[in-house]
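User: Reviewer 2 asked us to show a designed sequence for the structure in our supplementary figure. I'm pasting the structure tokens here. Could you produce the per-position amino acids so we can include them in the response letter?
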């Protein structure tokens, strides 16, 4: 079987917990050279140390994806450290669900800034390098909520529908530059994502559900590795996965 992960320079946003951290560990074991971005510096420093001690390669770079210049610094770090950027995983995201009538406007702004504008800033930072290299791979996190609506998901879903639209536009425009794109839409996965829901009733309902059916974040790690590992002339453009027991 071809190994198209070993030696690749891969940048992961939101690498301090959940699916980003699981993907970083998994890809490092497969020989990728990682750059880890998130706001919690202590978490990404500890993860990078763990990977490096195990014989892998990882560099932490404190990054807030709502700031375009910080994403540029994150992507630049891959080129400075490893000489190139092969893959960008735009994984950072927040999901403070609530019904619209509760008017949580600051949380709406945060979801748009992190989930949508953060992805765009990542694309802006990586594209010039990838176009120059005439190769690259951009992986964006949508969600089952980027395909369907559920209680309190209107704004979160709006950001995740938008990620799918921009990823398809990116795919079409980058075909000529040998740059692959992948949209990954997870169903329920057990991570820290629900910790930041401020509306207690909404948080409780979601915690109960995800606690019951949620998959471990390592599921995502295997699937993102699958998309990267395919030969460069194959674009795995969309992956949607759910727990088998998830109805939505
Ligand atoms: P976690 O809460 O465990 O991880 C989210 C990550 O995003 C953290 O590493 C966090 O790091 C980072 N993040 C949040 N805000 C910012 C910011 N402003 N700048 C940089 N990083 C930021 O959740 P998941 O692992 O579940 O989430 C990963 C992705 O998967 C998200 O895009 C989410 O929407 C999506 N998803 C998750 C599902 C699930 O069921 N878990 C289902 C469908 C999609 P830090 O706080 O240190 O900055």
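Assistant: Here is a per-position design you can include in the supplement:
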């Amino acid at each position: 079987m071809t190994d198209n992960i070993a030696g690749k320079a891969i940048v992961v946003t939101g690498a301090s917990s959940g699916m980003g951290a699981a993907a970083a560990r998994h890809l490092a074991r497969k020989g990728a050279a990682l750059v880890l971005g998130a706001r919690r510096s202590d978490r990404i420093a500890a993860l990078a140390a763990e990977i490096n001690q195990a014989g892998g390669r990882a560099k932490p770079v404190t990054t807030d994806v709502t700031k375009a210049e910080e994403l540029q610094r994150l992507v630049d770090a891959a080129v400075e450290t490893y000489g190139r950027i092969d893959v960008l995983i735009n994984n950072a995201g927040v999901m403070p669900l609530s019904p619209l009538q509760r008017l949580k406007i600051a949380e709406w702004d945060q979801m748009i800034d992190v989930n949508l504008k953060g992805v765009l800033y990542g694309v802006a930072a990586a594209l010039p390098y990838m176009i120059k290299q005439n190769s690259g791979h951009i992986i964006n996190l949508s969600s089952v909520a980027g395909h369907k609506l559920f209680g309190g998901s209107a704004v979160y879903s709006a950001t995740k529908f938008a990620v799918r639209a921009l990823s398809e536009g990116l795919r079409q425009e980058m075909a000529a530059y040998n740059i692959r794109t992948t949209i990954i839409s997870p169903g329920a996965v057990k991570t820290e994502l629900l910790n930041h829901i401020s509306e207690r009733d909404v948080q409780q309902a979601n915690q109960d559900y995800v606690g019951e059916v949620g998959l471990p974040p390592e599921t995502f790690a295997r699937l993102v590795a699958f998309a990267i590992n395919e030969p460069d002339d194959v674009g795995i453009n969309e992956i949607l996965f759910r727990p088998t027991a998830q109805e939505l």
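For the response letter, you might also mention the following. Residues 9-234 form a domain with the Rossmann fold fold (CATH 3.40.50.720). The pocket of NDP is lined by residues 13-14, 16-20, 38-40, 43, 63-66, 91-95, 114, 141, 143, 186, 188-189, 191-193, 217 (CB under 6 Å).
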